[in-house]
Design a protein that fits this description.
single chain; 269 residues; alpha/beta
Length: 269
């Protein structure tokens, strides 16, 4: 993992995961340096990652007051329980459904949970965070937020896209990637992460997109894309064209067997 600042208020904890045949999927977590510091998601749970150590290079975990879990998928919860232990004053921001999903793996300390639904807000001392459901999501417990003070939108999985290399996936800014390549990656990711787009009513979907246009964030921070500064108009236009795209269909068993044969002694080089 690596870290980089986005303006004075936010630090990105950048990581990525290689997916053969697809590319490198960014997996970001964030620290919002508010009066009451907020950690947004907690990275991958793979044994070679140490989320808490990386976080400690940015902020003393004991100073964290809020852990905003955008949704309880495993690429967002890797360091969650370790952080709850290291940050005894922190409360976990999630939803009723999010708690239910996480409790199938390990019980949560309910006295430290803070339920927050889309449309509600959270006061973190020097600013108010406005919760909303991003237009694209793969988990019904998903809740992103907008920070008016820094004009930053934390969009969870929405706007994600695989990148060609690990260095690009963990870069501090996606602007180095050609615009058409970013849009193509975002459309592919939407077909994987939100396969229901094939079935969605376009007008009802656009009604979820327009608030983002009105919000007009200066910075978009997605879990699965390098930070995007000044690209909101382009990103929202790309979102508006998403309804109807065909869902991703992965390799079948025959393709898997062919792939595995390539790893066997004497198989294709």
């Amino acid at each position: 993992m690596s870290t980089h600042k986005i303006g004075p208020d936010t630090t990105v904890l950048a990581d990525c995961l290689e997916v053969p045949g697809v590319g490198f999927i960014p997996v970001n977590a964030f620290v919002l340096h508010a009066e009451q510091p907020v950690v947004v998601d907690t990275g991958l749970g793979l044994p070679d990652r140490d989320f808490l150590d990386t976080l400690g290079s940015v902020i003393d975990p004991a100073d964290v007051r809020w852990i905003w879990l955008t949704h309880p998928d495993r690429d967002h919860t890797g360091g969650l329980f370790e952080l709850l232990e290291a940050a005894p004053e922190a409360r976990l921001v999630t939803t009723f459904l999010g708690v239910g999903i996480m409790s199938t793996e390990r019980p949560l300390p309910m006295d430290r949970v803070y339920f927050l639904n889309p449309g509600q807000s959270l006061d973190v001392g020097d600013r108010t965070l406005h919760a909303f459901r991003p237009p694209l999501f793969d988990n019904p417990a998903t809740v992103g937020f907008y920070d008016e003070r820094s004009r930053t939108c934390f969009s969870s999985d929405c706007f994600g896209g695989p990148m060609p290399t690990a260095n690009v996936a963990t870069a501090p800014d996606v602007s180095g990637v050609p615009a058409e390549d970013v849009t193509s990656a975002q459309r592919f990711w939407a077909s994987v992460d939100s396969p229901w787009l094939q079935l969605v009513d376009p007008d009802r979907f656009l009604a979820t997109v327009e608030p983002l246009r009105s919000m007009d964030p200066e910075t978009i921070l997605s879990t699965h894309l390098p930070p995007a500064l000044g690209l909101t108009g382009r990103f929202v236009d790309a979102l508006a064209a998403m309804p109807g795209i065909a869902p991703f269909v992965g390799p079948d068993q025959a393709a898997l067997e062919q792939m595995l044969a390539g790893f066997e002694p004497g198989g294709p080089a």
